[in-house]
Amino acid sequence: MITAVNNDTKYQPYAASGVYLKPVMPSHLDTLIIKYNGVLVGSGADTIYAHIGFGQNWTHIAELKMQKNMSSFELSFDMPIPADCINLCFRDSADNWDNNSGRNYTYTIELDAHYGGINV
Description:
The chain is mainly beta and 120 residues long. It has one domain: Immunoglobulin-like, CATH 2.60.40. 3% of the residues lie in helices and 38% in strands. A hairpin with a 4-residue loop joins β5 and β6 (73-78).
């Protein structure tokens, strides 16, 4: 299992907000690793949940509890469906949200030739 996260902001557009995705250019076949040490962690959150949706319309929404590590929270999961993007936001146990000032954290997903340009 890959645990290191590339901190290069060229490939990690939300690094300044404490949000990282591995692999940096994911496909729908990948196991994704999310690392979060954003504003909620800075505010002392003891628990973080990743709120995840797929495609432009946020289909297959899931909310998953993240594992606490030294100074961040991490989550590993498989893509449940082929989608052109993954959308993320985060909340703590007190229901405080980090949604990138209403823009969410969105990453493009590469689709292979089998799925073509499916938009979910």
